[in-house]
Specification:
The protein is built from 22 helices and 18 strands. The protein is α/β, with parallel strands linked by helices and 563 residues long. It has 3 domains: 206 residues, Rossmann fold (3-Layer(aba) Sandwich), CATH 3.40.50; 233 residues, Rossmann fold; 88 residues. The strands form 4 sheets. Strands 1, 2, 3, 4, 5, 6 and 7 form a 7-stranded parallel sheet that branches. A 6-stranded parallel sheet has the order 10-9-8-11-12-13, with helices on both faces.
Length: 563
């Protein structure tokens, strides 16, 4: 008999599908996460995944079946029933929206299951507002928001601290931060094997030569690679890298290889115009308006000598492309920015280039931030403004690239150290074990609470509670109904089907119609309890049984005859 993996994963297509959605870091990470957790399943374990549609389920089945260990299983469904989630013990979200999803525990003891999520981009209004709600939401110490880097952890802590100060002022009392959710730091991860040359070439240098032949790059060129979204406003403004390579490229053997996706024509034109400003800059681009394929990315990583990512954007919290470079044994020159400093060991696996911005100079929001938070300034403009006001130390960037250009030995040494670091700290066997330990630890906390008498049911701002005053008559028990079969066709009208499908399936609706017709044929009176029992058999939830009975009364199918 299979046993449940210690968490169920919530994975709508927006969280993992890079074929029908834009290729963005959180989707790439979600795709890798699903595969990484699946590969870590033990014999006899079954992983439950909650999907948004049948198409999502089919896509995940195709993605995960090839890496499913023998003896383990997958269970994909659209069911978010709290009882089912209690069997898994935890629902893991692909985002930091714990406050929103805590509504799933309305009406059940809060120790019934844990809720965990993970940080990605943190600078949007929606995400920041969601983080602010963590203090007021019905969350517990056995819930957790996983922060993928120390920088992300710092952002979350600062948001909570700011909101604590707001609540103290609003309530005119001292407010202590609650014990939950926990904020563990667990990084994103990467499977290094697809980037390994073994089995295809005899050495890394042979792989490099083959890739260059396929890309038309000279064997004696020094290739500096950038992989990622090609966007000057929402990822990394390339001006510092362009200017530095332009200064260093005195013998015309230095090539900047850009590999990624440009979202629109305007961004492409802007990047091309910027490049024209630097006469010694040689750029070769893979991808562009058509996103670079996985094969092109692997060729780019194989052909390169140095990886460089000068990120300056508030959207960045980790840096999956840096892990891909480390897997490919490339030295990494990156901005000392956000989660990048968790990945690069300065002077060992690469070099961190100092950054400077004005964010530390004020604890107050400026007029542009006010406009952004009010919706008067769009998101792209906001992150672009912040990017433009973030500077890289170009002298340090010049020195780092110059040293690596001059020393192939240093490049090889840093590249090997980077791959070793990836395997030790950022590979799926390591990171999936950290998640397993987190979820098992949360389960232990819930079990302790249950042994001590259990947790309480949180009050909830439900529609039933706050709108009950709209009604002039309250629900009555001991009511009997006559079935009026001539009105049954009304139940099948499209105008009603659109709503009824949220209570019961099409098959259950057919069975309900047949039952009502049979009761009408024998002129049987139905008690309210009769109706509820039948609806329960048709898997109508207890909370919706009276809703459906009222709908049958509204349509004239049931006629109340006494009370």
């Amino acid at each position: 008999m299979s046993r449940a993996y210690p968490a169920a994963l919530l994975l709508p297509s927006d969280a993992f599908d890079t074929s029908s959605h834009q290729v963005m870091g959180r989707r790439v990470a979600g795709r890798a996460f699903a595969r990484g957790i699946t590969t870590s399943l033990q014999p006899g374990e079954e992983l439950s995944i909650v999907v948004g549609s049948r198409e999502d389920a089919a896509g995940l089945q195709t993605l995960l079946q090839p890496v499913l260990p023998q003896g383990s299983g997958l269970k994909l469904s659209k069911n978010l029933n709290p009882e089912r989630l209690g069997e898994a013990g935890c629902l893991h979200l692909p985002d930091p929206g714990l406050a929103r999803w805590s509504r799933l525990r309305a009406g059940v003891p809060s120790h019934h299951f844990s809720i965990t999520g993970v940080t990605h981009t943190l600078c949007s209004n929606a995400v920041l507002e969601g983080l602010e709600q963590l203090l007021q939401a019905p969350l517990e110490p056995w819930d957790a928001l996983v922060c993928t880097s120390r920088a992300a952890h710092g952002v979350v802590n600062q948001v909570l601290e700011c909101q604590r100060e707001v609540l103290e002022r609003r309530l005119n009392t001292r407010f202590v931060l609650p014990k939950g959710p926990q904020l563990p730091i667990i990084p994103l991860a990467l499977d290094p094997e697809p980037f390994d040359w073994r089995g295809q070439c005899n050495s890394r240098s042979e792989q490099r030569l083959q890739a260059r032949q396929m890309l038309g790059i000279a064997t004696d060129a020094v290739v500096i690679l950038y992989v990622g979204r090609l966007s000057f406003h929402s990822k990394a403004h390339p001006i510092s890298l362009y200017r530095t390579i332009n200064e260093l490229n005195q013998d015309d053997k230095l090539i900047l290889l850009e590999c990624g996706h440009i979202f629109n024509d305007a961004i492409e034109a802007a990047l091309d115009d910027l490049a024209k400003h630097f006469s010694n800059l040689n750029i070769k681009r893979l991808g562009g308006r058509e996103p670079a394929s996985e094969e092109q990315k692997k060729l780019a990583l194989a052909a390169a000598d140095i990886f460089c990512s000068p990120s300056d954007n508030l959207q960045e919290t980790f840096g999956l492309s840096l892990l891909e470079a480390m897997a490919s044994q490339l030295p990494v020159v990156a901005s000392d920015w956000s989660g990048y400093r968790d990945l690069v060991e300065d002077g060992i696996t690469g070099v961190l280039v100092p950054t400077q911005c004005s964010l530390e100079n004020s604890l107050q929001q400026d007029p542009l931030e006010t406009n952004f938070k009010l919706g008067l300034l769009d998101y792209d403009s906001w992150v672009g403004i912040r990017s433009l006001s973030t500077c890289l130390d170009e002298r340090a960037l010049n020195n780092a690239l110059s040293d690596l250009i001059m020393s192939s030995e240093k490049r090889q040494s840093m590249g090997k150290e980077g791959r070793n670091r990836l395997i030790k700290s950022f590979s799926w066997p390591v990171v999936s074990q950290q998640y397993r330990e987190l979820w098992l630890g949360l389960a232990s906390m819930r079990q302790s609470v249950e042994l001590e008498g259990g947790s309480n049911i949180w009050p909830v701002t439900s529609y039933q509670r706050v709108f009950k005053g709209f009604n002039s008559q309250q629900h009555q028990d001991n009511v009997y109904y006559e079935v009026r079969s001539q009105e049954l066709p009304l139940l099948q009208l499209e105008m009603h089907q659109a709503f009824l499908k949220h209570w019961l399936s099409r098959e259950s609706l057919g069975e309900l119609l047949l039952w009502l017709q049979q009761k009408s044929n024998i002129s049987a009176l139905l008690s309210q309890e009769d109706c509820k029992q039948k609806l329960a058999i048709l898997t109508v939830g207890k909370s919706h049984q009276m809703d459906l009975i009222n709908a049958l009364i509204k349509l004239g199918i049931l006629k109340k005859i006494n009370s």
